[in-house]
Write a structure and sequence with these properties.
With 267 residues, the protein is an alpha/beta fold. The protein has 10 helices and 11 strands.
């Protein structure tokens, strides 16, 4: 496939659908018969996707969604396991391939989740910028129920929601699922919509963001993520450097001439 073809819209993958239109890349997990559980092929394909998204300036925003009605993703495909090096010191967390932020993608990712959202699905959710959900979405972590330590997913989740909620999600395992309403209450989801409207709403949000100056958007995403978790004083001091890089004094990125303020909406 030529560079021009990839810019125009499609890239072919085995486990994922990928297309670009109007500066929005839409990535659809496409293993509905496996509840969109990820295998080694999907991990490898996401490494390629994130590299392409990072390098292709025609892409401003990404929408991440999933095919099939039953699940967004149920974590690792236990029937088609991830390849791990024999030497434990050479092993790598497969989540590094799935995560946009660990692949240095500073273009906003809008996730649209529905149905079952379990375990390893949080490799994506923990590192997305906006997560919206269908009203049927349920969230759970099966690890401890199967006698496995749950670490990477709840560690990431605890940076997005109250610590007690992350602990409850991990420790109750298969005995409890978090509802979409509860996920909205604790800030994991920023918006709830009926399932039939989920994809359209995610696309709408992505296009609103994609219409804004790309450099300003990407600088904003990077500044927030790279300073998240730092103490306030350090974060504010470091934040100044992002503004000096992204907003050079006397060199406005966008002319104010002709700029029309949009009609804002109350959320």
């Amino acid at each position: 496939m030529s560079d021009q073809e990839s810019i125009a819209g499609r890239r072919d993958y085995e486990t994922v659908l990928f297309e670009v239109a109007d500066q929005v890349a839409t990535v659809t997990l496409n293993r509905p018969e496996k509840l969109n559980a990820f295998n080694q092929t999907m991990v490898d394909e996401f490494r390629d996707i994130w590299t392409h998204v990072r390098q292709e300036d025609e892409i401003h925003v990404v929408v991440l969604r999933a095919a099939g009605e039953r699940a967004f993703c149920t974590g690792t495909d236990v029937s088609d396991r991830i390849h791990m090096a024999e030497n434990v010191w050479s092993q790598e967390d497969p989540g590094r391939g799935l995560s946009p932020k660990q692949n240095r993608v500073w273009k906003p990712v809008v996730a649209a989740v529905h149905g079952m959202v379990a375990g390893g699905a949080f490799y994506w959710l923990n590192d997305c910028d906006i997560v919206i959900g269908a009203e049927d979405a349920t969230f759970f972590d099966p690890h401890v129920s199967y006698g496995m330590t749950s670490a990477l997913e709840p560690i990431g989740l605890a940076r997005r929601v109250p610590l007690g909620e992350a602990l409850r999600w991990a420790l109750l395992g298969l005995d409890e699922r978090m509802s979409a309403a509860r996920a909205r209450e604790i800030g994991l989801l920023s918006e709830l919509v009926p399932y039939p409207q989920l994809w359209d709403r995610a696309d709408e949000l992505a296009r609103i963001i994609a219409a804004k100056p790309a450099a300003a958007v990407q600088g904003t995403v990077r500044a927030i993520w790279e300073t998240h978790g730092l103490d306030r004083e350090t974060a504010q001091a470091l934040g100044w450097h992002y503004t000096t890089v992204g907003n050079p004094i006397g060199t406005p990125q966008v002319s104010r001439k002709g700029f029309v303020k949009p009609e804002w909406k109350l959320r």
